[in-house]
């Protein structure tokens, strides 16, 4: 009853349900792409709510958006773009089998990710101090109706919060990758986890690329008081 | 114990909806019999005779696939068009429909006639006259459902929704709340009383003591000092409301909209939402200072300031004294 | 085949004993059994709620329980049945077990994610059970705002978390299935040689992956609104209560296709094997599954016809709702045509397949009723809708599930169920079901609203008929629970292919070995080629 197809020992690069390492790599990659599609649908719900309410309350959204610090937002955007760049370099290093380079670029990516989260925490604290956090203590000056302003900030926190949560998970994934990279588990033949983690990281970056203008830059050209 | 099978027909829509139902039942019965009979027949005729049976594979027939896609599609398009036609009519109340206001709250229906009559969980209407209900909720979503009329409309907080019907038979008909709204959802029921026109007029005259909606609205307008800014001659800081209802209004952002009930309600509760061109956003919100019924009273008062109300005209006190024997306006053919 | 031989042979059931070997398994077959136990548990919980509802409705007065309790009963019945029974049922039990085998794979693409899916369902279920035990939730399974966000005083958040977590179970299962079908097919298993069950699971997986995240984020917003009063759906703060309905139904309508498509896939298998003929119009049936999945995403507004949605939106959604009906009709016609000149067996699974076709036809046709705008205005939110969806979900999906369970029981367990009791149960279920739900069409057209604890007395006779049916139906479901369990020990031992079926799962032993196949098969035949099983002994039917 010896299972001929299972003469091979299961390895990281060739788990027992697969026939060849190529099949495993293609399967893992397809899996990550489909997962990212589900993430698009998940964030998409929030983008839909944003679109609808911005359409209904354009002025208030404009004013509320202007109260966010666009410079800090832009800095954070640059930080994330750099982190995507270092991630690409990490993937490239793995493809070339360069362990040290892989480790360095993973660390850099993580640091940039943590920097983004730190800046975000600072921004959120600012919002807390200014009473722009939705709830009983919410107050936004300059508009008579607080409801739509609160809606904007609810969306701000929900969307940046969900994004930040994904960043935290991303940093977690990177530390797991780092752990294995240091131990030499990734080679030019087997670097799929680095590859698909890269896909995830870029996706989280792209979400921010949409969030930044939609939340920070509404009506900026109008120089509202 | 009774076993009713079909509801009474008591509105202009009921026969239409019932006829559509007969078509739907007919088509369905046809296909149910067809499929059941085919299965029965094939199952028996071709029952397995031996465990060595090996039937000839029959794979496909494009002609059959097309036929049994296209023909059902055609039948369903009739269902679509017929239902859509009824729906269109239901969404267009006649211009001369009698206006009644409904405010729903957990767990009761508060009904307000223009002339001042107020009802709780009951709606008296005349037979043969289109009635348009303008409705809102004070809390959760409710739904105004009269099975005998075949009409139903959700009643949503924060906005007005409308429904209309013409009662065709005097009688007493169930009114149900049809959108789950909490503990006493099942108890949020009542009756619609469709009455002969003269009986309706008689019933209506019992409500004069409340004052008409417009009269109450005028009182509220004065109590809330709206006239300090909204001067009738237009000399105030805010637009005059005379002749406003039904007119097009130019807004500060360039849009032009019609001043209907929804616009008036929004302007009272959320005045910053739409600023009239040439005016400043000075008006404070009256959210919390005025109930939904108060809003309806103010709206009716503002409507009374227009020379000839354009949308959903109701009877004014003057018209009630019409000779009971005189012909009432013929019901608009839906 | 004797018992001693079975006990010696290694199967997925005896390869490793003990709780750990089950709770940490990567074997899709064991995970399927874990799911089977879990969903059966939730089915009976939901069934208890249903029984209490039907008993209360025997009399017009609300005299069994209080209104608040009744409102919790129908809410929890809906939530349990939909999220914790119907959605996982066929995909996570029969799909998990057989999809890899049917395409000649050793397992799913991601076995550990498969196990995670099961844990997520259990965790979600625990949140829901906690909510039920702590006092229940009374918003209706539809959670309409602002009632659920502002006015309800029940365990909304805990329940929402439970559904949120179980949603990820569904998403991951869908993801696993899609990737498996794309990448793990055996040599020669082309797309158009796959069994139709696989096609329907694939279509279902697409819906799971695209739709479920939307309800996840919607429930997240309900959570935030309820916990932090932020005003997304609250009109007093500028929010829109109908926006919730759009977002909710954007998932929940496709969800009903998650529930019915796998059932249709099962029926395709059953009709074929018990007629000994390929399914007529294989390509049309395969593509109809995809069509239902795609068009199913475009019809959600038919739940909003009287919600203050615009007339024009209503027209579009009504039209598209008729479009989505056509592929289902195509399936019914093709199944019926498969019987023509076949060799028809009346084994229990086939009886369930016939039951499905009959009851799904009725249920699906009444879908045409409610898709018609003018008609729906009258019957929406009444018992007519309740009857419609129970016909398709219970008369449809659950019948198919029972059929599939009986069909594949010998393969999963190595035992045959007792055919006499099984046929009797199928008949009892069919009769009980119709008696329960047909009167509800009449009740609905008469105007009896749904979610009513007490009602006007003229509706009583129909309610009594319905409750009588429900008691018969309950017996019909209890019997299989008993005899299937009994058969695990005392049932006749089954061979590899007791039905003379085609399909790769029948080419391996019953129960299958851990790695499914001793050698990965190379596929050279079309699906449903019965000439390849001519020598097989048909043991039952």
Structural write-up:
The complex is a heterotrimer of chains A (225), B (334) and C (541). Chain A is 73% helix and 0% strand. Chain A is mostly helical and 225 residues long. Chain A has one domain (40-222): Four Helix Bundle (Hemerythrin (Met), subunit A). In chain A, helix 1 packs across helix 2 and helix 1 (21-56) packs parallel to helix 6 (192-216). With 334 residues, chain B is α+β, with helices and mostly antiparallel strands. Chain B has 3 domains: 9-39 and 63-92; 98-210, Sandwich (Immunoglobulin-like), CATH 2.60.40.420; 213-311, Cytochrome Bc1 Complex, Chain D, domain 2 (Orthogonal Bundle). Chain B has helices at residues 14-45, 62-90, 197-205, 213-223, 261-269, 292-304, 317-320, and strands spanning 98-105, 108-113, 118-120, 122-126, 130-137, 142-146, 151-155, 161-166, 171-177, 189-195, 248-250, 256-258. A 5-stranded mixed beta sheet of chain B has the order 3-2-1-5-8, covered by helices on one side. A 5-stranded mixed beta sheet of chain B has the order 4-10-9-6-7. Chain B has a two-stranded antiparallel ribbon with strand order 11-12. In chain B, helix 4 (213-223) packs across helix 6 (292-304). By secondary structure, chain C is mainly alpha-helical. The longest helix of chain C is centred in the first third of the chain and has 36 residues, at 67-102. The chains are: A mainly alpha (225), B alpha+beta (334), C mainly alpha (541). Chains B and C meet through helix 1, helix 2, strand 7 and strand 9 of B and helix 4, helix 6, helix 10, helix 11 and helix 12 of C.
Give structural attributes.
heterotrimer; A: 225 residues; mainly alpha; Four Helix Bundle (Hemerythrin (Met), subunit A); 6 helices; C: 541 residues; Cytochrome C Oxidase, Chain A; 16 helices; globular
């Amino acid at each position: 009853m010896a299972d001929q197809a299972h003469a091979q020992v299961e390895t990281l690069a060739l788990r027992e349900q697969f026939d060849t390492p190529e099949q495993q790599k293609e399967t893992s990659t397809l899996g990550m792409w489909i997962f990212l599609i589900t993430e698009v649908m998940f964030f998409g719900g929030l983008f839909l709510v944003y679109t609808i309410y911005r359409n209904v309350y354009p002025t208030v959204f404009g004013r509320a958006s202007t109260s966010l610090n666009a410079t800090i937002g832009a800095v954070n955007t640059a930080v994330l773009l750099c982190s995507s760049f270092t991630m690409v370099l990490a993937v490239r290093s793995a493809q070339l089998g360069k362990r040290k380079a892989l480790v360095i670029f993973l660390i850099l990516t993580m640091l940039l990710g943590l920097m983004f989260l730190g800046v975000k925490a600072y921004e959120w604290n600012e919002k807390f101090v200014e009473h722009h956090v939705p709830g009983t203590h919410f107050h936004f000056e300059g508009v008579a109706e607080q409801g739509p302003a609160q809606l904007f900030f609810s969306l701000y926190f929900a969307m940046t919060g969900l994004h930040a949560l994904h960043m935290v998970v991303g940093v977690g994934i990177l530390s797991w990758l780092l752990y294995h990279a240091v131990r030499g588990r990734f080679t030019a033949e087997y670097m799929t986890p680095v590859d698909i983690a890269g896909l995830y990281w870029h996706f989280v970056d792209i979400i921010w690329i949409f969030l930044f203008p939609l939340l920070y830059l509404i009506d900026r050209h109008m120089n509202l008081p | 114990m009774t076993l009713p099978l079909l509801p009474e027909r008591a509105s202009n829509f009921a026969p239409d909806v019932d006829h559509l139902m007969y078509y739907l039942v007919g088509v369905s019965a046809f296909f149910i019999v067809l499929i059941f009979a085919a299965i029965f027949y094939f199952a028996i005729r071709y029952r397995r005779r031996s465990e060595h049976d090996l039937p000839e594979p029959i794979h496909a027939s494009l002609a059959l696939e097309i036929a049994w896609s296209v023909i059902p599609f055609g039948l369903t398009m009739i269902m679509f068009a017929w239902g859509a036609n009824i729906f269109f009519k239901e969404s267009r109340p006649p211009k001369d429909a009698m206006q009644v206001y409904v405010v729903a709250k957990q767990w009761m229906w508060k009904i307000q006639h223009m002339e001042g009559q107020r009802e709780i969980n009951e709606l008296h209407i005349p037979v043969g006259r289109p009635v348009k209900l303008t409705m809102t909720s004070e809390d959760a979503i409710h739904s105004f459902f009269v099975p005998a009329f075949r009409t139903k409309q959700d009643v949503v907080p924060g906005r007005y929704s409308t429904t209309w019907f013409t009662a065709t038979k005097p009688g007493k008909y169930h009114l149900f709340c049809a959108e789950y709204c909490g503990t006493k959802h099942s108890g949020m029921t009542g009756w619609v009383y469709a009455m002969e026109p003269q009986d309706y007029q008689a019933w209506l005259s019992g409500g004069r003591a409340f004052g008409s909606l417009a009269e109450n609205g005028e009182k509220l307008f004065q109590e809330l000092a709206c006239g300090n800014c909204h001067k009738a001659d237009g000399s105030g800081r805010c637009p005059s409301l005379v002749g406003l209802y039904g007119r097009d209004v130019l807004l500060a952002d360039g849009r032009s909209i019609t001043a209907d009930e929804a616009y008036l309600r929004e302007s009272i509760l959320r005045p910053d939402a739409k600023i009239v061109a040439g005016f400043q956003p000075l008006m404070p919100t009256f959210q919390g200072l005025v109930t939904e019924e108060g809003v309806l009273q103010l709206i009716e008062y503002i409507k009374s300031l227009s020379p000839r109300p354009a949308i959903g005209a109701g009877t004014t006190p003057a018209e009630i004294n019409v000779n009971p024997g005189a012909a009432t306006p013929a019901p608009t053919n839906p | 085949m004797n018992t001693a031989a079975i006990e010696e042979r290694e199967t997925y059931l005896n390869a490793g004993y003990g709780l750990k070997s089950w709770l940490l398994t990567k074997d899709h077959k064991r995970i399927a059994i874990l799911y089977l136990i879990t969903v059966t548990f939730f089915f009976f919980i939901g069934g208890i709620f249903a029984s209490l509802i039907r008993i209360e409705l025997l009399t017009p007065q609300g005299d069994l329980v209080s209104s608040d309790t009744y409102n919790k009963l129908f809410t929890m019945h809906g939530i349990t049945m939909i999220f914790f029974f119907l959605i996982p049922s066929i995909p996570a039990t029969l799909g998990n077990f057989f999809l890899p085998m049917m395409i000649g794979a050793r397992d799913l693409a991601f076995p550990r994610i498969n196990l995670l899916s099961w844990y997520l369902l259990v965790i979600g279920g625990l949140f829901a059970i906690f909510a039920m035990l702590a006092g229940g939730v009374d918003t209706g399974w539809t959670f309409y705002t602002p009632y659920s966000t502002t006015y309800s005083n029940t365990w909304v958040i805990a329940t929402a978390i439970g559904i949120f977590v179980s949603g990820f179970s569904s998403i991951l299962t869908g993801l696993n299935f899609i990737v498996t079908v794309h990448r793990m097919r055996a040599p020669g298993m082309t797309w158009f040689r796959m069994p139709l069950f696989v096609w329907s699971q694939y279509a279902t997986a697409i819906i799971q992956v695209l739709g479920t995240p939307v309800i996840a984020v919607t429930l997240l917003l309900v959570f935030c609104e309820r916990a932090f009063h932020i005003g997304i759906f609250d009109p007093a703060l500028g929010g829109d209560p109908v926006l919730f309905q759009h977002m909710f139904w954007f998932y929940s309508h496709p969800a009903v296709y998650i529930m019915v498509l796998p059932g249709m896939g099962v029926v395709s298998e059953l009709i074929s094997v018990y007629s000994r003929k390929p399914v007529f119009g294989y390509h049309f049936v395969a593509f109809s599954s995809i069509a239902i999945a795609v068009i199913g995403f475009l019809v959600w507004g038919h739940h909003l016809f009287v919600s203050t949605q615009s007339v024009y939106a209503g027209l579009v959604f009504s039209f598209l709702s008729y479009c989505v009906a056509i592929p289902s009709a195509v399936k019914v016609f093709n199944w019926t045509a498969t019987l023509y000149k076949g060799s028809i067996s009346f084994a229990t699974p086939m009886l369930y397949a016939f039951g499905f076709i009959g009851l799904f036809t009725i249920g699906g046709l009444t879908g045409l009723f409610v898709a018609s705008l003018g008609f729906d205005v009258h019957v929406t939110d009444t018992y007519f809708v309740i009857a419609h969806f129970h016909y398709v979900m219970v008369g449809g999906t659950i019948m198919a599930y029972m059929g599939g369970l009986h069909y594949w029981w010998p393969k999963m367990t190595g035992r045959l169920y007792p055919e006499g009791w099984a046929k009797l149960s199928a008949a009892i279920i069919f009769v009980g079901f119709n008696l329960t739900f047909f009167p509800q069409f009449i009740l609905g057209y008469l105007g009896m609203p749904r979610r009513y604890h007490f009602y006007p007395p003229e509706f009583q006779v129909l309610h009594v008929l319905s409750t009588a049916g429900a008691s018969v139906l309950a017996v019909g479901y209890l019997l299989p629970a008993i005899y299937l369990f009994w058969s695990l020990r005392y049932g006749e031992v089954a061979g590899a292919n007791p039905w003379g079926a085609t399909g790769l799962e029948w080419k391996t032993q019953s129960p299958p070995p851990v790695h499914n196949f001793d050698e990965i098969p190379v596929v050279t035949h079309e699906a449903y080629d019965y000439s390849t099983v001519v020598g097989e002994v048909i043991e039952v039917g």
